[in-house]
Batch of 2 targets.
Target 1
Amino acid sequence: MEFVERPWERLLDALRTVGTVTDTDRGLVVDVDGRTVEIVMTPKDWDDMPVTWGYYPDEHVVELLRSQPPDQDFLVYDLYDLESCATPEIPPDPGLVRLEGLAAQYPDGVIPGAGWFAYKREGVRDYARDAQPDGTSAGPVEPVEDE
């Protein structure tokens, strides 16, 4: 494995093999075969990439650039990888948006009528019902008919 003293410059060199690279305030702009793709990622973000990859994945970024969908002009850094996007920001997760809405509506965390429930699986012995007074199990778990 080669020691990389300046990993950002190594990424720039890899990207220059497929197009023209311009460094901007929010990342890089790469012109490949008449198409412009913006990589929204800072040198600090790039320094974090080996956390999951184990190395600087410059070849991976080149491949993402080559396979970028035509309706998406951005590769946006998100949690140790790049995502293809139509905008320079990752769209919000709909599930997270819903949870944030509930948190704003119920700041104390209590949603009326909601709660955690545990349902007994069919054919499984009820441990609490079958426990001995000393807390030990009444025996091996065997399927039982619902009463």
Note: The CA atoms of residues 21 and 30 lie 5 Å apart.
Target 2
Amino acid sequence: MNLMRFYIKGDNMKNNEKGFVAISVIYSVFILFIIIMLLIMYSYISDRKNTNEIKKDMRDNFNVQTPHISFSRVGQEYETGNNSVYVVVSKGKYNLGTLKYVWSSRQYAIPETTFNNGDAILLPTTRGSWYLVVQACDIYNNCSVAISKRFVVTGNN
């Protein structure tokens, strides 16, 4: 009790000044609280914006247009010689990356030989039925595959 009396007696501040200091401390704490809340809200909004951009990128990646492959000739019967097929690839959403082809006696084969867009691809000289299998990929490895109709090569080896 003596300590409390000493504190009150020893305090030189008037009641007015005590109230002013108390209110100043309360306002300072309140302003600090508002600043912290604004920073939290800004961080939340920034994260939401980034999340929406990520969602948009993901949505775009699932709706990717793969390259379109077209042949200058459809499958038919040919004599051996310098017969060729032009392959034209139009890009999808992104620029073209790799273009590969293979002549196969089956419709399903893995293209291994690279070529440039618009190149003439020579028919095989060996007699038989052949399919041209072309794979076109863009720079993000979104690929499409096209298989020609059957080419029949007649004539001598």
Note: The two ends are 120 Å apart (CA to CA).
